[in-house]
Amino acid sequence: MTSNSVSDDELAARWSVTAGRSFVFRSLAEETLVFDQASGDTHLLDSAAALVLQLLQGVGLSAGELAPRLMAELSLPADPELAEHLLGVFHELAERDLIELLPDEKRSAEGLANASPPA
Amino acid sequence: MKIRDLTPIELRRRLESAEGLRFHCGPVINALQTTIPAVREGLAIAYADFPLAEPAFADFHVCVAPPVSWRKYLRRQTLFCLDGVSHFEPLPWTQAYPMLEWGLNWCVTSFCHHLLILHAAVVEKGGRALILPGEPGAGKSTLTAALTLLGGWRLLSDEMALLVPADGRVLAIPRPISLKNASLDRVRQWLPDVVMTAPVPDTGKGTVGHVRPPAASVEAMHLSARPAWVVFPRYRAEAATRMAPVSPGNAMMRLVDQAFNYQLHGVDGFRCLSELVQQAPAFEFEYSDIQEALAAFEALATVPAGRAEVMA
Amino acid sequence: MRTAGLIAAIQHPESWAAAELPAWDGLLRLARRAQLLGVLAERLRAAGLESGLPEPVRAALKSERVLSDANRRAVAWEVRCLRRALAALGLPVILLKGAAYASAELPPAAGRLFGDIDVLVPQERLADVERALTWAGWDSGSHDAYDERYYRTWMHELPPMRHRKRESVLDVHHTILPPTARYHPDPGKLRADARELPGRPGVRVLAPTDMVLHSACHLFHEGEWEHGLRDLHDLDALLRCFGAEPGFWERLVARAAEMELRRPLHYALRYVVRLWTTPVPEPVLAALAPAGPGALMQRLMDGLFLRAIVPRHSLLTRAGDGLAHFCLYLRAHWLRMPVHLLLPHLLRKALKPKPKPEPA
Q1: C208 or C183, greater pLDDT
Q2: Which residues of A touch B278 (CB under 8 A)?
């Protein structure tokens, strides 16, 4: 069953930077370059996504928990949809294998995500 | 003393000797052995202004010669060997000269990892270097030929940008400019007197010829330069001349794509290239008319350092 | 420049502090051919000599260091990815050869480049392992039917697996010698005694005696001698490192007997001492001598091995080396494969095409 609204479970699921990654950041105006010293991969992210990545280093946070922190960090006006938007950013970062769901969360997320092998 | 100062007999003697002919190519010294006349003749034309080197040391001991086998009487072929080992399949003997050029490129990109090497042409004016990455279809060599033979730019390299990771300088290795197919004709149109090796047809990339680099560029081979601009060229028939800015982030990712050994340098490579894109504004350049192209780059060169210019 | 000169430069780099460029030219070329340039670079750097050397020499050495540092990072990342891929199977990752030296930070790793990652898994779990690896992005690769049969049926490995995105190569072994070989060291014992790396749960390397035995086997059963000098250098480094541990030599001799590998060890020690003057105690050599061949055969083997192990280079060529190499290649394959299969296989290997040069 698909719908446009995001479930509370998804907003509460915790993500963190994938184990073993070691990032070096370089800010360029609205973009940020990210280098992972462990794998040698280089990424170009928009600065907001890069900030999300930085905040997920070494800690597990959910979209619901991260939203208020970002609003404070960037001095953004209160935005009820920010958490949902952050989930989208999480998925994009996860697609690049930069962050992952924390182990406990992986089991509850099975119902939400596909179980097919990665491409 | 330069290669042009050798008599044909002496040139041949050195090429067929055990030490080979030794000459400087920017930061490397090549020792070349060959018995093939086309290679000797091509060398005499394209490398005329290159300085000879002492027999003491060479970075690359290379040889372009037919395989040692009874088959050479059936089909004539050439091998490129580095220090006595052939790393590639033989090519037809008619392609012996291009094989030398491709082989020498391979030596640098395979063994000079103290440098960060990009697949790009580099030219310089007023002490500032222009890097022209060689994305497919870019036509960088044609543009390089025009910039250096008509536009008064110094040639640092047609094929590879040699960056010193510690400080971001570009080293010069002003070897002959390789042209192919239609660009051979175009360059001959602009410059009927252009000095180049005899074009070789039917190679993997069509007909290929190598243009002698300007003597002044060869003379200045030991002068490095600081990158001031990165321009991604694209030749498109009938296109209007257009120089559009590329964000530093995008420039970085495109440069990483065009690098031979970025991965090897780890975080040092990341720092070097990200420093480069922060110091040198990047542009995408589309053109069809060479005179307009030269004018566009001239305009770029006259802008004082530190300011980017957009041309519609 | 002779092989002895290369060995001396590696063991006594300070003797090259004041060398002239022509001498360096020969040394660098020979070292590169022997795949020991990185090792030489590391020795010169460790001796604090690098900065005083001529510029072109520094450039070549720096290039090697960039390569070996990059290789080290790549191996570390591969091992990490491998660990994740096999975690669900409850199998430890037992590393062999270069990946083991690099991950355990053993002396042979300094300045070396390692191409493939080699791991040891139980034979009965091979199918599971292959499946888990495929899930994690490794391909069994596009080998032709002949190679598939060679690897799976006759040799001791799955065909090399290549990672789709990273393009790294993984060799999965279930034993260290093929089932068709003369000797049958028990892989179960090797796995049982494997040691976990400190701070790296689930990643293991063979016990020191087993690492030495594997290196000896690998050298004296594998077919290619191009890297004989380099591989013996690895062995020399291992022995100097482990030899300092109390009881190591006794355990080594005992283990060789237990695994029925006394003859390869005999050869390995004989030649590593001969070439690299490794400090192997006399009683050890004496204990293994009975496992060696008869006197006449020994002299023949000495001639063959010592000629073939020397890097092939125009600065060093002597007439007759080609034959020595070929005889040893033949012997190595004889020890691994029934003869009637040997000739067609060697012919096929000789005819595989090499890549074409890249036009500009």
Answers
A1: C208
A2: 28
